[in-house]
Amino acid sequence: MKAVIRITLKNGVLDPQGKAIETALGQLGFSGVDDVRQGKLVELSLAETDPEKARQQLTQICEKLLANTVIENYDIELVS
Amino acid sequence: MKAVIRITLKNGVLDPQGKAIETALGQLGFSGVDDVRQGKLVELSLAETDPEKARQQLTQICEKLLANTVIENYDIELVS
Amino acid sequence: MSVAVIVFPGSNCDRDVAVCLAAALGEPPIMAWHGDHNLPKVDAIILPGGFSYGDYLRGGAIASKSPIMGEVIEAANRGVPVLGICNGFQILTESGLLPGVLMRNSGLKFICRDVALEVGNTDNAFLNAYQRGQHITMPIAHNEGNYFADADTLQRLEDEDRIVLRYAGGNPNGAQLNIAGIRNKAGNVIGMMPHPERLAEAVLGGEDGRGVFDSLVQTLGRS
Amino acid sequence: MSTEADTDNWKAMVAEHGLSEDEYDLIVGHMGRTPNLTELGVFSVMWSEHCSYKSSRKWLGTLLTSGDCVIQGPGENAGVIDIGDGQAAIFKMESHNHPSFIEPYQGAATGVGGIMRDVFTMGARPVANMNALRFGSPDHPKTRHLLAGVVSGIGGYGNCIGVPTVGGEVNFDASYNGNILVNAMCVGLATTDKIFYAKASGVGSPVVYVGSKTGRDGIHGATMASAEFDDDSDEKRPTVQVGDPFTEKLLLEACLELMASDAIIAIQDMGAAGLTSSSVEMASKGEVGILLDLDHVPCRETAMTAYEMLLSESQERMLMVLKPGRESEAEKIFTRWGLDFAVIGELTDSQRMVIKHQGEIVADMPLGPLADGAPLYDRPHVPTPPRAEIRSDDLIHPNSIAETLVTMLGLPDLASRRWVWEQYDHMVMGDTIARPGGDAALVRVHGTQKALAIATDVTPRYCYADPFEGGKQAVAETWRNITATGAQPLAITNCLNFGNPQRPEIMGQFVGCIQGMDAACRALNYPVISGNVSLYNETNGKGIHPTPAIGGVGLIDDYRSAIGAGLTEEGLDIYLVGDDGRHLGCSIYLRDILKAEDLGPPPSVDLDAELRNGNFVRAAIADRTICAAHDVSDGGLLVALAEMIMSGSVGATISVAPDAPFAFWFGEDQGRYLIAVKAGSDIAALAGKAGVAVQKIAQSLGRELTFADGVSISREDLGAQHEGWMPDFMGRPD
Ligand SMILES: Nc1ncnc2c1ncn2[C@@H]1O[C@H](COP(=O)(O)OP(=O)(O)O)[C@@H](O)[C@H]1O
Ligand SMILES: [Mg+2]
């Protein structure tokens, strides 16, 4: 079973990278780009085949390691 | 118009961060986790409302700045 | 004889390089601001280390798109010697002046320490004071120094004798072929992860880095 | 407050703001009416322990804060000392303990960012950072994670901004399991005629906001820093600030650029309690009033309330008062650096802080009471009971000194910190003469022959056993570390980390440490010029070891005469300077090798001998009699000798076979140094004249440490043990 996990900064948490990208895009002449936020993507395979159990395991993985839940949210997508 | 861009490492490019996550997960007792790859996620808003044009603009943005196409692939998703 | 040091927002070794250049050249270099569209006519260009644009997105990525880089690329194509140190090396790969990329260190940690290096091709403006095969020490200080390129590119770098510095006492960051520095095909553009400007004075722990600045003086003096 | 329920709600609100009922009544008295929520918020942060020092101020006032070199003592953003030639060193240390426990990377990073702003707000370019770190026991499940996060956060910020992190300390102890300590110090350089202060003046002068935009970051950080943790703290996870070192670098350059002109009247960074404390401090110091219109504050988020804007702790922001008419010149600079610039108010003559938002006055408070009206507490304190002496004869020692040494070199509190400082850029700026790993770091004053020597120290287990002696020792150890390089110690900063001051035994620790520090400062003519207090470092009623971290700064006129600790030459005579008192109490040997339950009293510091020995060593370094020197601290004499061997290139052969050898080699008596001198030097005669005890104990030789009985250990084996522990520990699975 494959999964994609998206880790994004919580609303209201400063995102210096997003800000820098936004400024750079402006300087490169791309207009109309706003609210740039940068996050992380983690793709992985699981031996687990039961979607319910897989989701449980992934939730634990996110809480324990992948996401810093003080400032980040995560979102789990099972892709196959 | 909002968009999400996923930037992932090309196949065959070594991913030390993915590997580190994999090792850490093993150490934390999560078994059966494999092929961990870490990528980037960029969310943004565009003033452009035409999906076709938006996609064109985003492709340019990715080629010019967001992705280093020597090692990275990108994937554009328009979400609204 | 005039040398430009390009200053990006977040460059932080610009002064250190300028100090070494001033000592070697006998006059201070021109400090050129990233936002400028016209670079004065200079005999050599140095892109210093640091965290241009905070190293956000990828080290060197945003800086490589700044206005002055158009001028740097043009000068490089005209044959002006260009040296990128650390973040400057990253900017050179991001701008396409040098092949490959500098990825996150394999140990996933910032590393600051002296490393042993072996000098390769010295037929260029920044290394001709050294001998091929010479072992020298210079400090590294980076998060992203893990040189990566596809197999063909690596083969080409080897075949064309374009590897100018290799790690010689253990590979600190996972770089392929122990690459610490490379040059372009023409030989006028050099990128290196180590910081020669940090070990160019005995009181700071060694003088092995001074050769880079002495090389430049010799070259410019000759031409 | 119409109904009883409203009254109860309001009472709860007051309590939630960390104010006692008495304090609240005082506020109402000052206001002459019930404050509104915004005003309550402003009062609560200004009157928090963090901003008002209400429990500590009485005792801080007793410290020695003046001296020949002092240009500015405590009370400004950072202290300032004169280092000659019209140059000044500006420095301070500050804690970021609570945020770092909750989010180690960002907590530590923003701690570094904050202390650097304190220094450059005074007109100094930061030239060196230090960090004093305490973590829980190595076995505690969180220790590794916290240590890894803190170290990469410190590096992440300092490396990016391009200021070298040149030293610090790391300790482990179970008392920090639930309350780690992250104390960051910054040292900057300025010219004495270009120092900027926070005192505002000139009614009508514009109040200007520069730097990053304001978001809802860390609202109530200041009150959080003054509260105890309980088991729920993990879950509460208050908003943590995220640092942006890139923006700080731009802010630094922009501020220094503007400071080169004479447009600034006063400047103050927005640290804890953000806009509130910066504006209150500037206006109250100048005894003027201030009017702010929040509609002009650059905001990152929409619909921010006045309460949120005033209390936000968003990072990388500064507040300035400019000379009228100089706004556009300043704006040009900040805009060029890509930073926000906004005139958000002006000085008035009202001695009040008046806040407008969306056309209405939302707060109107008297400045005097806000800044200085918090009640000063003379909290009850009881002294720590003295402990009985420990006698070496009563202990059962291991068999082999050599094997014990090897074990000790790999103990968590003695092992090399290379794993830590290799993650810090310690060479950027091109002036680091003595890198981390030695006694004090040496940083050249750019473009001169002078160098600053910087060290941080405290031995919390000593402070816990005897706060007075521990306080003395912390100050003396920095003095000693600086002296060992050849530099003259000049002044200190400090960061006083303690538990809950409302408990008399904790307050007793605080008082004892302060008194001990002060005794040492006076004896060594080594004043305190800045500092910070972090209280309530406790979890479930258990406090940390008292930890008054000291950051000392010294000066050497010619860096070429500075020396290191490493033995680099054969045939040198190695002398112990100071007495061989054999004090085992509170030693690492007793705690970690003998695993003694009762550690006894710490070594006491004889301040007269300290001064005599140190001055002797410094003078002998200056006249080039001494080739290498190292102070004797944690682990005792033999550990110090091993460190001289490991950091150099040759070994040593020991020439003494003392009685009570374990106490001789591992006792932690104070005021001592190991020095290496050329064979046949007249050091013994010189010492005799100066009334300093010296004794030859070894000679530099070969590649081993060899004992008098012929047993030897190679440099490689010593080094492997010393360097091995930390990478191994950090690489172990959780
Ligand atoms: N957190 C840290 N950051 C940087 N350097 C550190 C840190 N901890 C320890 N060091 C360095 O390691 C060396 C040994 O530290 P320590 O044992 O505390 O020294 P001392 O006993 O001389 O005070 C010193 O040079 C110190 O600066
Ligand atoms: Mg020391």
Describe the fold and architecture.
The complex is a heterotetramer, with two copies of chain A (80 residues), one copy of chain C (223 residues) and one copy of chain D (734 residues). Chain A has helices at 16-27, 51-66, and strands spanning 2-9, 33-46, 72-78. By secondary structure, chain A is an alpha+beta fold. Chain A has a three-stranded antiparallel β-sheet. The N and C termini of chain A lie close together (5 Å). The mean pLDDT of chain A is 93. Chain C has helices spanning 14-25, 67-77, 87-94, 151-159, 210-222, and strands at residues 3-7, 30-33, 44-47, 82-85, 101-103, 111-119, 135-142, 146-148, 163-167, 179-183, 189-192. Chain C is globular, with a radius of gyration of 16 Å. With 223 residues, chain C is an alpha/beta fold. In chain D, the strands form five sheets. A seven-stranded mixed β-sheet of chain D has the order 8-10-7-11-9-12-13. Chain D has a seven-stranded mixed β-sheet with strand order 23-25-22-26-24-27-28, with helices on both faces. In chain D, helix 7 (104-120) packs parallel to helix 11, helix 8 (143-161) packs parallel to helix 11 (245-259) and helix 19 packs parallel to helix 20. Chains in contact: A-B, A-C, A-D, B-C, C-D. Strand 2 (33-46) of chain A pairs antiparallel with strand 2 of chain B, so a sheet runs across the interface. The structure holds adenosine-5'-diphosphate and magnesium ion (MG). Adenosine-5'-diphosphate binds at residues 131, 133, 165, 167-170, 417, 420-421, 436-439, 457, 481, 633-634 of chain D. The site of adenosine-5'-diphosphate (ADP) has 18 residues of chain D, from strand 4, strand 5 and helix 17.
